[in-house]
Design a protein that fits this description.
three-stranded mixed β-sheet
Length: about 475
């Protein structure tokens, strides 16, 4: 953001409160930066300038982020009367008929929503590339992915346009983009942040909303402002004992942390990811924590199959809805090739397979809890990605080689999905840069409801090994 790149969202809000800058000045700066970033990185699906200026004209509420420009993802974050396409040509003319509960809470926090960021079709892959909007590029290296499915959000924040943006995560889609672009990305506990209305869960409860940000305190403060049960929700995460932001007030007690090196599918880190793990281990030990190489025993085959069953059945339902809407069969002009394959599979899945899927996820949660109890562990540590951000095109939903695509997408962030399957929170932190200068995040996972512990450790790490001064070659603030 022009002239404001050294501030996080909390810092910008303080400038507004002290009247050192006005919300209009911040919006103007964000729009200027967004124009440049959009041209270079292709990270926006829409700019909502009129909506943002109407927010300013009607008066902003007094919240923790009053006057701070903000962007929402083109997937799940509905703003009444504005487009939301889910990254799909099948929804290219779709307009939201209501506000999402989360959007209402973001506005109540004082955020000024001025843009919508890109997503791959239905969030189905770990790179933000779509037939509708094209390829979103990484500000650290424009030939590489900014991650997915919240890659538009990560490119926007990492390039300095705004200090944080909405993101969502059904299998790693907050943490993967954060890891690809040098950001903080927390996936909250299941039931922590609203998903509706009227449907209060997506992907059988695996998906959740939050943000990518440049600072830990912004992530914590936004979670304070947006968490809590929504109308129609059938469950809610354990309520925090105190504000999440207060977890940053002091270092955590010495923690016992399991260093998890082999993912459920058998994937292990490449040399760069391993180097990141080793340097993170040394940092943690220097801070007084105990790190032990250990990992849970999980049924990777059942978990992988379960993700396929769950995603495919969800895609079949979306295809049925679109066919009813269009009055015709959906085809390649509507959905991308991988999406169509999911639809085809979803329409053949026996109902019993979905029960097996749910059981596999429940068994994984029990196995993970048992592992933590047996080792008296507080947290898990794993690489967010098995390797640095890959080149664009390899993870698109129109792959040249379906077999190669399937193997790469299963291995690229193989430790991420289990936290969606179990409902546990996890956070990716920018703790490693490769020899070629690419970010590669490291991930910490905690038991259900323990975002406070993740934030306490993240705050301590941020103070000990700060990343705020790192800037990608494509920086528009």
């Amino acid at each position: 953001m022009k002239g404001f790149g050294e501030y996080d969202a909390t810092g910008l809000a303080a400038l507004v409160k002290s009247k050192d800058v006005s919300p209009t000045e911040l919006l103007d700066a964000a729009l200027e930066s967004a124009g440049e970033a959009g041209d270079k990185l292709n990270c926006f699906s829409k700019i909502f300038e009129d909506h943002a200026r109407a927010q300013l004209k009607s008066g902003l509420p007094d919240g923790p982020f009053t006057g701070v420009p903000f962007a929402v993802k083109d997937l799940g974050a509905r703003l009444k009367g504005l487009p939301i396409t889910n990254g799909s040509r099948a929804f290219k003319d779709n307009v939201a008929d209501m506000d999402a509960t989360l959007v209402k809470r973001q506005r109540e926090a004082g955020l000024v929503i001025f843009a919508q960021t890109t997503s791959p079709e239905f969030g189905l892959t770990t790179s933000t590339e779509s037939a509708l909007y094209g390829q979103t590029r990484n500000p650290w290296d424009t030939s590489r992915t900014s991650g997915g499915s919240s890659g538009g959000a990560s490119a926007t924040v990492a390039s300095g346009v705004i200090p944080m943006a909405h993101a969502s995560d059904g299998g790693g889609s907050i943490r993967i983009p954060a890891a690809c672009t040098g950001l903080v990305g927390l996936k909250p506990s299941r039931g922590r942040v609203p998903m509706g209305p009227p449907i209060s869960e997506n992907w059988f409860g695996l998906s959740t909303n939050h943000c990518v940000s440049r600072s830990v305190r912004d992530s914590a403060a936004l979670l304070d402002a947006t968490h809590g049960m929504e109308p129609g929700a059938r469950y809610v995460a354990p309520p925090p004992e105190r504000p999440f932001l207060s977890a940053l007030d002091a270092d955590p007690k010495p923690l016992r942390i399991a260093l998890w090196q082999t993912a459920p599918n058998g994937m292990t880190p490449d040399n760069e990811a391993q180097a990141g793990l080793e340097s993170t281990r040394k940092l943690l030990e220097s801070l007084g924590h105990t790190v032990i190489e250990a990992g849970p025993t999980l049924d990777g085959e059942a978990l992988g199959k379960g993700m396929m069953m769950m995603v495919s059945s969800s895609m079949a339902s979306i295809a049925d809805e679109r066919e009813a809407h269009f009055g015709r069969k959906i085809g390649p002009e509507d959905f991308e090739p991988v999406s169509l394959r999911f639809v085809e599979l979803g329409r053949t899945i026996p109902m019993g397979e979905l029960v097996k899927t749910n059981n596999a996820f429940s068994e994984a949660a029990y196995a993970l809890e048992t592992f933590m109890d047996g080792g008296k562990f507080d947290l898990l540590l794993a690489p967010t990605l098995s390797q640095p951000p890959v080149e664009l095109g390899l993870l698109s939903l129109d792959p040249a080689d379906f077999d190669a695509y399937g193997e790469l997408i299963g291995n690229f962030a193989a430790w991420c999905p289990v936290f969606n399957q179990t409902g546990w929170p996890a956070i990716s932190l920018p703790l490693h840069w490769t020899k070629s200068g690419l970010p590669l995040g490291m991930m910490f996972g905690a038991r259900l409801g323990r975002e406070d512990l993740l934030y306490a450790l993240a705050g301590q790490i941020e103070r000990a090994a700060p990343w705020a001064d790192r800037r990608p070659p494509n920086w528009f603030a």
